[in-house]
Design brief:
- By secondary structure, the chain is mainly β.
- The chain has three domains: 64 residues, SH3 type barrels; 62 residues, SH3 Domains (SH3 type barrels, Roll), CATH 2.30.30.40; 123 residues, endopeptidase fold (from Nostoc punctiforme).
- It contains five helices and 24 strands.
- The relative contact order is 0.12.
Length: 264
């Protein structure tokens, strides 16, 4: 198999090599993949956690394994704004997107004034505003309230099946994206997220625990409240499992499966 990296700011990961096939997820600029076969203008890719699907050929740049590993070691920063405009250098030899999405990992070669100079996997330099960048922190020092504060930034973002960006999230994509911001990796799908961490009884749920329902996952806020990317609400929203609250979700209360604590 070949190795590669995503070169578009975002790329749909399809179940089949067809435009109208189900969107399983999305991949951000600089995400590494292993490349399998090519078909119908698509290539089959596998993410480091084993999640796989089909992306358009023009979304992937092929790299040697050595070059890919070396480049990934430079990605110690992330985009912390919802989007970050790219200012291309004049010597760019390959395509660079107009902007990057929240959560995208980037390098930081040097800083000048209010800008940071980065490079893509093809050694093209580009410039981002320093205000749009944050350091990838250690996953060992995550505070639950920091997770909650970050999640609330996206209230009102539309629901999108397979979505992982501020242009649209699905339930597990939303939870995973928030945790990835803190350099903490979760599985892509809710059924797999339900298998990790520590099982928590309902009365012991704390903020940043994961709440699971039939085919759905949410992030606990405490006091029976939770935040989630909801098809029923058409967006990222806060709801409750308390029947006495206006934002009570009876459908979720009746399909509640359990809670897991994933933070160290």
């Amino acid at each position: 198999m070949k190795h590669g990296i995503i070169k578009k700011n975002i790329a749909d990961l399809r179940a089949k090599p067809e435009f109208h096939s189900e969107r399983k997820s999305q991949l951000l600029f600089n995400e590494p993949v292993t490349i399998g076969k090519y078909q119908n203008g698509y290539c089959r890719v596998i993410q480091p956690d084993g999640y796989f699907g089909w992306v358009r050929e023009n979304a992937v740049r092929t790299l040697s394994e050595t070059k890919l590993k070396s480049y990934l070691l430079t990605l110690k920063y992330r985009v912390k704004s919802k989007t970050a405009k790219i200012n291309n250098s004049n010597n760019a030899t390959t395509f660079l997107p107009e902007f990057l999405f929240y959560g995208t990992k980037v390098s930081n070669l040097r800083r000048q004034d209010n800008y940071s100079v980065s490079k893509d996997s093809d050694a093209n330099s580009f410039i981002l505003s320093k205000s749009n960048m944050g350091i990838l922190e250690s996953s060992k020092v995550i505070k639950p309230l920091a997770i909650i504060k970050e999640a609330k930034r996206f209230l009102g973002v539309p629901y999108l099946w397979g979505g992982i960006s501020p242009f649209g999230f699905d339930c597990s994509g939303f939870v995973r994206t928030i945790f990835r911001t803190f350099n903490f990796e979760l599985p892509r799908d809710s059924k797999d997220q339900y298998k990790i961490g520590q099982k928590i009884t309902y009365k012991n749920i704390k903020p940043a625990d994961l709440l699971f329902f039939k085919g759905h996952v949410a992030l606990a806020l405490g006091e029976d409240k939770f935040i989630h990317a909801s098809l029923g609400e058409s967006s990222v929203a806060i709801n409750s499992l308390n029947p006495n609250k206006n934002n009570y979700r009876k459908d979720l209360f009746e399909t509640y499966l359990g809670a897991r604590r994933v933070l160290p």
